[in-house]
Structure formats: structure tokens, C-alpha cells
Amino acid sequence: MLVLGIETSCDDTSVAIVRDGQEVLTNLVSSQVKAHRLFGGVVPELASRMHVEKINALIRLALQESGLAFQDLDACAVTYGPGLEGALLVGVSAASALSKALGIPLVGVNHLHAHLYASFLQPDPPEFPFLACLVSGGHTLLIHAKGHFDFESIGQTRDDAAGEAFDKVARALGLPYPGGPIIEKLALDGNAKAFAFPRAMWNQGLDFSFSGLKTAVMQVIKSYDDPSQLPVADICASFQLAVCDIIVHKSMKASQSLELSTLVLCGGVSANRCLQTELLHATSQGGLRLCVPNILYCTDNAAMVAVTGYYELLMGRLRAGPLSVVSTLHF
């Protein structure tokens, strides 16, 4: 089965074609980072306009690179939420038109589900049941994955998501958007023990809180009268380790509580090497298998949408009627 995937939930326009839920024939991503960096974050109207400019060309290029024609496609999967409403509309409109013109199924995909299913693009995908830790710019979640689309959210952030905290700390340090990659890079030259930043809600269930950590970092920044004396690398390293410690601690606690042997790390922040290293160490010590998607499928991409659409079809989860976008959508 050949599934065309379309992803336009935020600031990346992506089109992919995946065969039988695992073989990625092509995965094209047009990033808008440079355009939004000028404003220090994503501008919704600009994102929507850039999606409109790119989507048709990317669909044609995806088919060309795969050596396929429109008539070869068996289904079209598209992110319908959560995300920026205007941006989502671009993808859903394109996918709906393709579905109607070609007479193939249109599959609406939950963006959060897609991040989890990115791990199924590995040669040895995880087996149910498992714990998924989804860490991104807008979400920090612990999910008990019992079977295909049988998911239970057992922990979530009560304020800032981890990726959001990275962006806000980077902005406070005068670093460019997005904050995650630049903080990770600078942290390599820093001392992660230089500042004892708080690990909020350490022994309080499975929920997360990163707002206090962000505030603690900002207080340190304000304590330096001379910005040139600010130990940026040390702050980045200490902040990053605090985030990783919290995520690792909660993930291991949940895995042990549910007696699960597999942990899936997914979402944009899963590309962070410090987080991967810390989780790999913890899971090795605890006798768990850690699954992390290929770096190409950690951040927003259409391959993860296509593979999710494949499993939606396999499980007979087609929705009736026109597909509408949803800006806020739970797991």
C-alpha cells in the first residue's frame, strides 16, 4: 500500500510517500525556520502563506523522486490537528482535493499519534504494550500504548512543555529561535553542574512542570549586571541537564509502575543527544529497551503521518464526511 503523507501543522511543509507502513520512498521537508527566526518565533499568518507556496511543488517532487504517478497512490494521509488552524487548512485542503480527484481514501491523522508512530519506521519497531514519552515544543506527555490507537495519557506538563522551555530560555539568553538546537550545541562546552536548577514535581506523580525551571534560569541571567560575563555555556548545560533529569526520572518511574519493558522516546525534543544519552543509560540500567526514531523522523515530517495513516487504514478507522481541522487535540 502506497500512502502519501502531508504535514503542515506548524512551520514545516512536508510531503512523503511510504510503502506498507515502513518503507519511506521519499520524505521532503521545507523548513520555515529562517523566515520565523526574524520574529523570534512562529508567525501563524506567515506559516500559512509559506505552506501555500510550497505544498503543490513538494507533492509533485515527491512523486517524481519515487518514480510514481498520482494513479499509483492508494491513500492520502494528512495532519488535521493539533496545530495552527490556518497552516492545517493548507494541508487538509490539498489532501482532500487529491483524495477526491483520485478516488482514494482520505485519512485524518492526529499529529501526536504521528510522533509516536515515527518509531514504527525502524527496522525493528516497538511491540505493544510500551510507554511513549512524547517531548516537543507544545507537548510533554507520557502515554501508555496498549495497542494500535489504544493509548492512555498518564502524565503531562502542567505549564510549559519542554521544547517551549528551551525556546524561552534561549530567548532570555539572546540566542536565536529555535532554542533547542542552539542550547544543545552550546551546552557541549559548558559545565552541567555549574548551576543547581530545580527539578520540579520530582516526587509528585507523573506530571511535569518546567515553568519554575525556566524562571530559575532567568533569575540567574538577571543576577549578572554585565551581560558579557554571563556563563552562557554553563547555563545551557545546567538547564539542559535539569530538563533531561526530569524526563528520565518520570519516564523510568512510569515504566516501572506499569511493568513495561519498552520505552519509546518521540517528538521534536527527542533529537536532543543529551536526552537520548541519559535515557539510554537509565533504560540499560533498568533492563528496558529504548526506541528512538531516526533523527529524520524526530521533528515534524510527513513520513510519520503516512505511516500513521497506514495503520489507521489497517485498523479500519476511516472517518466519514469532510475532514475538519482542529487546533487543539488531545492524545
H/E element string? EEEHHEHEHEEEHHHHEHEH
As a percent range, the share of helical residues equals 40-55%
Please report the number of helical segments.
Answer: 10
| Stretches with pLDDT under 50, minimum 5 residues | none
Oligomer: single chain
Q: What is the CATH-assigned architecture of the largest domain?
A: 2-Layer Sandwich
* CATH fold-level assignment of the largest domain: Nucleotidyltransferase, domain 5
Structural class: alpha/beta
Q: What is the total tally of β strands?
A: 10
* CATH class (first level) name of the largest domain: Alpha Beta
Report strand order across the widest sheet. Answer: 3-2-1-4-5
Short descriptors:
Nucleotidyltransferase, domain 5; globular; 10 strands; five-stranded mixed sheet; 331 residues; alpha/beta; single chain; 2 domains
List the helices and strands and how they pair.
Blueprint (H helix, E strand, L loop, with lengths): L1 E6 L4 E8 L3 E9 L1 H5 L6 H23 L8 E7 L3 H18 L3 E5 H7 L12 E6 L4 E8 L2 E7 L5 H11 L6 H9 L23 H12 L9 H27 L3 E5 L6 H14 L2 E3 L10 H13 L17
Parallel strand pairs: 1-4, 4-5, 6-9, 9-10
Antiparallel strand pairs: 1-2, 2-3, 6-7, 7-8
Helix pairs in contact: 2-3, 4-10, 5-6, 5-7, 6-8, 7-8, 8-9
